[in-house]
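Recap from last week: sequence in, structure out.
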Amino acid sequence: MPEAVAVNNMTDFTSDLITRHGFICHGEQNMQRLLVPEELGNGSFEIRRVSADIDVGIINLELKRPIISYYDDYPCTYETTYCLSGSISYVETGVMKGSIGKNEMGIYLHPHSRGMTIYPSDQKIVAVSLVANNRFHEQLPHRGELKDLGEPGVKTLIEQLMQPKKVSTRVHNYFSQVVGDNIDDTLLDGYLDGLGKTLLSILWQENVLLPLRGVKSENINEYELKALAQARGILIDRYVSPPSTVDLAKMVTLNEYKLKTGFRKVYGMSIFECVRKIRMEKAKSLLENPEITISEIANRVGYVNTSHFARAFRNECGLNPSDFRF
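Predicted structure tokens:
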């Protein structure tokens, strides 16, 4: 095996490759492409901050010598890497070691980790990494529960997520779009921001949200998950006058029982509770405008009777609408 190229600190990854190993950097602060020098092979690491929420990394390498990147106390929030070809190996000190092969993914939630990542030589590596930065990460449900590494269930889940895993066709296609779509540079950051959030949301639901709610993946298939997401989207769009459960089931082509039970399993609430929550979030926004009366707000969010609105708001938010306003 040829002698490896070592990068000794993940936080200095870019500068180390440039100053010590002859990589050539193109781009600016928010988008850097590190070109592999000829003596080490060919290809590049591309690191792009597409928004305050999402970072995207695109790895395209054919190396003559392996690259080993060591990290210590790496401040990870929520990160995933998917290999479209080749493999990437890793060692998480005291936890595990593994290798992500073609069409495999790993998810990393360990808040402060130590180990190394290995990019092997003599193979074509194409991979995508997505990182959720703090603002987006903080909005994810059950995020706070994953901070308690002393809880056995949390520690087990995080270690399971690191294990290489195959993905659905839908997720594979999304990752492929990160590297394969010919999007104009003026549109690329917005495109990758939306695509990255979509992917990270899907992966969070399938691999974190549902397991923490005790939902086994085999109980709800991919088609049903898509239909449930569509149903929720319809409720968000039509919260003032939502369709009946019977009509909603027809609109997303699920039977009524699967719609109701699946919705509660996936979103942790009934359809009725979801509509109420959407209405109350809109009401809170409207209450910030003192020129709109409470009765008008009630009407705008779908309540004919102001007292019914006030009771629903109090049940949801713990305050009367008038108290919330001040």
